[in-house]
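In this supplementary section we document a worked example of the pipeline. Step one takes a protein sequence of length 122 as its only input; no multiple sequence alignment statistics are reported here. Step two produces a three-dimensional model, which step three serialises into structure tokens for compact storage. The input and output of this example are shown verbatim.
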Amino acid sequence: MRQLGQPVISCLARVEVPAALWGKERSGELSGTDAGLLVTEFIGDYEGGADESPRFVALALEERILRVAAGLCARHGLRAYDGVQLASAVAARAVDPACSGFACFDAELTRAAAREGFDIPI
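The serialised model returned by step three reads:
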């Protein structure tokens, strides 16, 4: 992710990413130490620090994003948070057409983004 410059994400990632990492710790895929380190690094990237800007542009939840998310969930069979992430990408692309790439670790969400016309890195 750090090689992508400053990606645009939904502010829900502030909850979603740590929850996913702690879930991997509970399932045994990550040690508690590794999960804690990754969560701490993500929060630092998300919030920035005294001498660093955030590494992400986090879009706030707005009614129009939620409306688009509901439609995307219906159209692509997405989970709620995935719909919000994709709707946030749609909103960013509407403001800046150069925001045409979409990257995530979820195959279903990636397919939905491709169907919505986003470039998917290989």
